[in-house]
Specification:
The protein has 3 helices and 5 strands, in the order E-E-H-E-H-E-E-H. With 126 residues, it is α+β, with helices and mostly antiparallel strands. It has one domain: Ubiquitin-like (UB roll) (Roll), CATH 3.10.20.30. The termini are far apart. Bound molecules: FE2/S2 (inorganic) cluster.
Length: 126
């Protein structure tokens, strides 16, 4: 069974899971890092509900990048706007886990909605 380690501020939490037993919570792709996190009560931000429309689920993959699904254009385009982007960055809601992975959650995420940035729900900025 795959293991995923999430690192928050240096503290590690590892979960081992049976992909077939995950209860999909409709946040991100089924079997994604976000899906795994939410199934195990790991508080990973996901302001857009796992639709590749924010960057609050940004993670930096420390080990096991080849054990994640290939990045699609939609994820790549959104990820370009992430704070602290690295070559090992992924959106947790889009990266489907196929093997062991270690990922770190950056200290800050870009939350346009919560921080009153460029996006205002239901309105267009002039
Ligand atoms: Fe918004 Fe992943 S939750 S991009």
């Amino acid at each position: 069974m795959p293991k995923v380690t999430f690192i928050f501020s240096g503290a590690e939490t590892t979960v081992e899971f049976d992909r077939a037993a995950l209860q999909y919570r409709r946040h991100g792709e089924p079997g994604s890092l976000l899906d795994v996190a939410l199934n195990y009560g790991i508080p990973l931000e996901h302001v857009c509900g796992g639709n590749a429309a924010c960057t609050t689920c940004h993670v930096i993959v420390r080990r096991g990048m080849s054990n994640l699904s290939e990045m699609q254009d939609e994820e790549s385009d959104r990820l370009d706007t992430a704070w602290d982007l690295t070559p090992d960055s992924r959106l947790a809601c889009q990266a489907i886990v196929n093997g062991d992975v270690v990922c770190e959650v950056p200290a800050y995420t870009r939350n346009y909605v919560g921080e009153g940035g460029d996006i205002e729900l239901g309105k267009r900025k002039p």
